[in-house]
Design goal:
Two copies of one chain form a homodimer. The first copy, chain A, has a four-stranded mixed beta sheet. Helices cover 49% and strands 6% of the residues of chain A. Chain A is mostly helical and 213 residues long. The first copy, chain A, has seven helices and four strands; from the N terminus they run E-H-E-H-E-E-H-H-H-H-H. The interface between A and B is large, with 39 and 39 residues.
């Protein structure tokens, strides 16, 4: 069904993993191109012509237009393939999923990126994604570590009351938070024994077939 | 129609202004409570019981549930009051609006907040919103200034090709970018004579009745 689309991916990076899991949850198969972030392929002219923001994921539509981030890819796929719903099933659930996805991005993903991009030697000069170079700020890495700790606490409280972040159903918000936790492990930030609700949820999400992609 | 809702607002802050403009564009009137951020009312127990993340905007629904950020409030209002559409009219436009709203948040709003919260003396210890205190990082203010310059360039390029950020129709992405530019003026970051498309768009948006709220 989606043979005339192209998904631009990178197997080692958190952002395209979010889209990959979303696509798998929808039961879709999309022709995929790997972009070699390690060798800065995303900054080259060829990829810049596809996505001028020089980031993955991106999704090329049959008419040649390109969706260039997780927000647009998820919204589009939810519209053209509503089942299973991953962004809520009624007005309130749609809102709550949007809110928890935003929380997972601002308090989780961004804090995790702050740690990784401002501390790893390989990220020197690449403290932010995109075409412009920015120096590392070591204090930001340190602040990011504190924020990830707070994020784990917040998730644990939420998940001791609800099966999933958006309520009773698995959603895009769970995908975002799951990918944050996976990649936070890179810099040795892991939920501990105080976060039992979070750990049970993480275990359950990691057993979904979509987590294997 | 919305007399059994409560909108939690603050007239001097950028985030609730986004929601206020969205509500006005929808032609809605919602009973409103001002939260006094200057005196840290958002960190007090009374407000924390309403929104545990201690941020405005928030929207209390008739059943007592609370939506606690712009993402959820916009999504909910778009569902219950679809006209005029502010989040796109078909799958591709919905996706493009989501993408440009995300760009305006990450490259604009966040950079602007980095400048303001990491440089103004009144923001000492409050470098991030929410219940936890974080120290200012002066390098982050400096980086934010550079990012806002890049953001103005990006918007100007986009708006020399399209009437609005999401395409042909005014949308939530325009609201977010508009509020960023308004508040960036606080720290003397303003589009200059090289940004003529951006300046025309800004002028047009500021003349909409919703910008007066």
């Amino acid at each position: 069904m989606m043979d005339d689309y192209v998904f631009y991916d990178c197997l080692t990076a958190p952002s395209p993993r979010r889209a990959r899991i979303f696509i798998a949850e929808k039961g879709l198969a999309i022709p995929t191109v790997q972009v070699d972030l390690r060798h800065k392929e995303q900054l080259g002219e060829a990829y810049k012509a596809i996505n001028p923001r020089c980031t993955v994921p991106a999704l090329k539509l049959p008419d040649g237009r390109v969706l260039g981030d997780n927000a647009s890819i998820a919204r589009y796929l939810e519209e053209i393939r509503p089942d299973p719903p991953l962004m809520g099933r009624d007005p309130v659930e749609k809102a709550v999923v949007a809110e928890w996805n935003a929380i997972a991005e601002s308090d989780g993903l961004l804090a995790m990126a702050e740690v990784i991009r401002n501390s790893l030697p390989g990220m020197k000069g690449r403290a932010l994604t995109g075409p412009k170079d920015y120096d590392q700020i070591p204090e930001l890495a340190e602040r990011g570590r504190a924020r990830i700790g707070n994020f784990f606490e917040l998730l644990d409280r939420r998940l001791s009351e609800q099966a999933y972040l958006g309520g009773e159903a698995f959603s895009v918000a769970d995908i975002t938070a799951f990918v944050v936790i996976e990649f936070a492990g890179w810099v040795k930030l892991v939920p501990d024994e105080n976060h039992s609700a979070l750990r049970s949820w993480y275990e359950a999400v990691s057993l979904r077939p979509s987590a294997k992609v």
